[in-house]
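Fold it.
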Amino acid sequence: MDINYELYKVFYYVAKSLSFSEASKKLFISQSAVSQSIKVLEKKLDRRLFTRSTKKVQLTPEGEILLKHVEPAMHLLWRGEMQLMEADSLNGGQLRIGASDTICHYYLLPFLKQFHEEYPNVHIRVSNQTSIRCGKMLENGEADLIVVNYPNPVLHNINAIQVVKEFQDVFLAGEKYLELKEREVTLAELAKYPILMLDRQSTTSEFLHMVFQKYQLDLVPEIEISSNALLIDLVRIGLGVTFIPDYCLPLKEGVFAVQIAEKLPCRKLVAVYNEKLPLSQSAEYFLNLLK
């Protein structure tokens, strides 16, 4: 079927914003031109892609299916344009990285600083997402590379994985629970305390649930949030015990690592790229920095 690329481009912007007016602003064309393009595309495909009302625009099931294919194609084209703009140099273009807030804050900052100092003309775009969501970004072509915790359920079919750091997870407690300090504590004992942890959308949470299941223990978190930094603050004021990677261990007073009797498996930080797509020079150089 011979369909003009511009029609798919208009469809993409409407589908992402769910607004004809917002799409017209981003495309620098009139709202009527956007509406007409969608009508032409729907006619060519013989499918209705949007439901329209006076207040909102929604994708139809057919529109959602089409978006799943159009979105990676758009990102692939933009990626190709950026690599051409780089012109075999690191004097321009951009580096798109996906990583969780924790990994950015506690691990990536010095590498981002070094890269920016050496190549100030390369625009660095960091998307803060959970490790699981980062895998989806890579699949859709929204990131050149991602830095995530491993094991990670969304990376089963990806081979381009580079280990950049091994780490150990630790339990952290505050002064309210000094009875846990300077002695070994079993997971069964620890389960009796309020457990504060990342929400279930994180690989760290999945890992901790797996550890407790291994020892046939129930894990019922007292609090689930999306920030390790906030978890550490909550531990400091005495709300419970948390579970964090050792590279997040705070240097401030008022908290301490709990010695666990059971041996916890090590985990890894990995840098991952989509081997089906060409790697930009900026992404390749950043990977070498992480080594």
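The chain has ten helices and 13 strands.
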